[in-house]
Amino acid sequence: MAGGVEKCLTLIGFSVICLKMVASAKTAPEIPTIDQAYSKISNSITVEWATVPGATSYLLTAKDGDTVIETMVANSPGTVTGLKAATLYQITIRSIGAAGRSQASPPTQAKTVLAAPILEVSSPSSDSILVQWEAVYMAIGFSVSIMRANGLGRIWKENTTNTSLTFTSLEAGTLYTIKAYAWNANGIPGDDSTCNQRTSPGAPANIQVSFNSGALKASFSWVPTEGAFNYTVMALSDSSELSCSTTFSSCTISSLQCGTEYLISVLASNDAGSSKSSSAVTLKTVACAPGRVIIQEDPPGHLSVAWSNVDLGDYYVAFVKSDDGLEVHCNTSLTQCNFLSECGFTYFISVFAYNKAGQSPLGDVFNYTTAPCCPSDISPVLVSSDRVEIVWSPVRGAELYETKAVDGYNVVECNDTVPACTLSALECDTKYNITVYSFSEVRGSNMSCTSRFITTAPCSPEINVSKDASSMIKVHWRSTNDDATYTVTAQGETGLYQCSSTGESCTMGALPCGSVFSVTAVAETQAGRSLPSYSVPLETVPCCPAGLTVTQITQSVINVSWTIGMVAQTYVTVLESHTGQSKCHTHQNHCLLGCITCGVNYTVALKAISATGLTADCAHQSYSSSACCPLGVKLYRLGPNGIRIYWQASRGSANYSTDLYGSKGIFTCVPSAGLSFCDVTEIPCGDVYTVMVSPVAETGLKLTFCPKKIYSVTCSGSTLGMVIYRGKRNPE
User: Fold this and answer.
1) In 10 A of CB 38, how many CB atoms?
2) Which sequence ranges form a coiled-coil region, renumbered to this chain (predicted)?
3) Contact present, 598 and 628 (Cβ < 8 Å)
4) Going by DSSP bridges, is the β-strand pair 315-322/631-638 parallel, antiparallel, or unpaired?
5) HSE-up (13 A, CA, CB side) for residue 97
6) What pLDDT is recorded for position 6?
7) 197, 262, 474, 689: which has the fewest C-beta neighbours closer than 10 Å?
8) Neighbours of 82 (CB within 10 A)
9) d(CA 575, CA 558)
10) Helix (H) or strand (E) holding 132
11) What angle do CA 549, 551, 555 make, to 5 degrees?
12) How far, in Å, CA of 514 to CA of 511, rounded?
């Protein structure tokens, strides 16, 4: 240990006084006589003499070879200074007065004492002081003494012929006074040198360590050491050296490194040097924060946190805090912890190492975002033939939803930020596997979401409409849907008519005549209803007129009449028998048919025809034409007031009625069945009568279209005889 060195020097001064001898007329004083000359200090000689009367001063001279040193003094004793140590000088003295100076006295020899040794002192240890000096001219030995500077305690004195001496068993940190001198062969001591030297302090004891794990600093304290001016605390590790210095008995070292073991020692120092190191104590800092943290989620719902081992780590605690504020932790001596995790959360993860010193500093805080949750309540709100609208509840962690509909080969997708999706351009009556994936920017898509099957509504049928002979409406389609029920609807002004079938056709009857319908069909399955098919217009046949009436106008002409039927624009009347057919096409509500053969059974048919050409076969009824008008009508006189009307009956059996129209009245008779004559009695004579014999229809209606004949009935002549024929009249 380096100690302070103090050099003790003895200065030898000298003065030279030059005296100028001035001649004086007066007598100089007497020559002094030297009593003795001696040296007590190595740079001076002291001279004693008897006083000379009249002398006001004295000149002392010391000569060493060519060197002369003079000193003016006032009286005895006087000292010559500036001399060399251990040197023999010739000493003379002169007295000086007002008249001048005397001659030099007889010389006397005197030798200066030895020079003081120049000391270099140090304290190599807390209980020793080393004194060193250079050799002193003419010295054969040295005397060195030491004592406490405060005068307390004993004095140690050592004689030596060496130029160094060590005093041991001293008190640490104490200031000592060292005195040394040399002596010559005669044992005469020389000048002495005095120095003060403090022993270096002792090593501090009872070192206490207080470690602040959060700030990575440590405070040290110890028992104060005697004589210590400063203290230095050293903290040594394999990779660093830290220290702090203080004048007090405590000190703090900051910026310690985590995971490091330090050897702590304390040095006390003063002007003499430093103490030995105190007994080292060990300081283990907190472990460093674990690094290389690896976070994995496998399988989903299980979070694994692993890290690297760290020095001085006794055990580890991993903290996992979710973004909803819930925190869990795991305490382990291993380097891995497992946690349960939930979808859609961001977890903030930190790992600390612990030892007796405390908790490691906070390392990196890692965040791990789990995959967003999967929608679980996917519900279709609309299913049509080519479109499916689905909704679901928002799920945690989802920033986007990816919806995919797969039917085996084709994929339809839609992406949106809202929990709803409309999948369009789908195939009708197709089963789709629909999956909604939740997506977040951090974790991507959650591919573990489950799917559900949704079948689109059935395809719209393509229909054909036909009518059979019985006017039943039959609707056909090609079945392209699985397990579908088809409903056909005929919508018109007169109402709505439907039929249903699970096959490929259905039949509707009893549609009102004379109506226009729009016919559509829809298919329905458990998935929903299809869109209506394209409508097919359907016009029913016109309504048949009511009240068909056949009236015979003449023997060969009949009139067929009816009420107007709905929608019918024209009518066709057909009169048909074995003898032939008669037809009439008209837009009116009646029709005349000629070329009728009397006494023949006919079939009367009426057809109603719409503007589009649809024909309704209406009434079919039998009609018998009237019996033929009789031929050869003649009148015979039966007495004065009787007339017989006679005729020739036509083919077939018929009933007849005879009418005589005269100015005096109308006379009618009806013959018995099968007879061809009829008698009218009580008819006045002398009048002209119009006679008409008419067939009587089965209804009892008497036909009036047979020809009329005019006869004159006179009152003269025989009671039997002809009636005069006067002419023929057309029937009106």
Assistant:
1) 15
2) none
3) yes
4) unpaired
5) 17
6) 40
7) 474
8) 17
9) 10
10) strand 128-133
11) 155
12) 9
N-term to C-term CA, the chain: 177
Are residues 47 and 62 in contact, defined by beta-carbon separation less than 8 angstroms? no
pLDDT digits (tens, 9 = 90+) for 681-703: 888 888 888 888 888 877 777 77
Say if strands 88-97 and 128-133 run parallel, antiparallel, or are unpaired: unpaired
Query: How many beta carbons lie within 10 A of that of residue 172, not counting itself?
Result: 23
Say what the alpha-carbon torsion angle 695, 701, 707, 712 is, to the nearest 10 degrees: 90
d(CA 698, CA 467): 40
Strand partners, 88: 111
**Residue appearing with tokens 């049509």:** 384
Residue 183 is which amino acid?
W
Closest residue by Cα to residue 167 from 159, 177, 156: 156
Q: How far apart are CA 125 and CA 273, in angstroms?
A: 8
Are the beta carbons of 99 and 24 closer than 8 angstroms? yes
On whether the CB atoms of residues 477 and 503 are closer than 8 A, the answer is no
Rounded distance, CA 607 to CA 465, Å? 23
Q: What are the DSSP calls for 341-398, one per residue?
A: --TT-EEEEEEEEEETTEEPPP-PPEEEEPPPPPP---EEEEE-SS-EEEE----TT-
Beta bridge partners of 614: none
**What is residue 14's predicted lDDT score, i.e. its pLDDT?**
33
Residues whose CB falls within 8 Å of the CB of residue 642, separated by 6 or more in sequence, listed in order: 679, 680, 681, 682, 683
CA nearest 550: which of 593, 507, 503? Answer: 593
Q: How far apart are CA 648 and CA 538, in angstroms?
A: 59
Cis status of the peptide bond prior to 300, with omega within 30 of 0: no
How many Cα atoms within 13 Å fall on the side-chain side of residue 393? 5
d(CA 598, CA 182): 200
pTM above 0.85, yes or no: no
Angstrom CA distances, 325 to 66, 328, 345, 396, stand at 106, 10, 11, 15
Local mean pLDDT, 10-residue blocks, the chain (732 residues): 40 34 62 93 94 92 93 94 93 92 92 94 92 93 94 92 94 94 92 93 91 90 92 92 93 92 92 86 92 90 94 94 93 94 93 93 92 92 90 94 91 93 92 94 90 92 83 87 92 90 89 89 91 90 84 85 84 88 90 84 89 85 81 82 83 78 87 84 85 80 82 66 52 41
Helix (H, G, I), strand (E, B) or coil at 426: coil
Structure tokens at 486: 């088809």
Alpha-carbon Rg for the chain, nearest whole angstrom, is: 81
Angle, CA 269 vertex, CA 264 and CA 275 arms, to 5°: 65
> % helix / strand / coil in the chain, to the nearest 5?
0, 50, 50
CA atoms lying within 13 Å on the CB side of residue 5: 9
CA distance 196 to 178: 6
Cα separation, 165 vs 130, whole angstroms = 6
Is the distance from CB of 420 to CB of 317 less than 8 angstroms?
A: no
Q: For residue 421, how far is the Cα from the chain centroid?
A: 19
Query: Which helix H or strand E contains 597, and what residues bound it?
Result: none
Of the candidates 106, 233, 105, 123, the residue with the CA atom closest to the CA atom of residue 168? 123
- Report residue 228 as tokens: 């210590």
Q: Say which residue the tokens 């004295």 belong to.
A: 58
Do residues 400 and 367 lie in contact, with contact meaning Cβ atoms separated by under 8 Å?
no
Residue 605 near residue 648 (C-beta atoms within 8 A): no
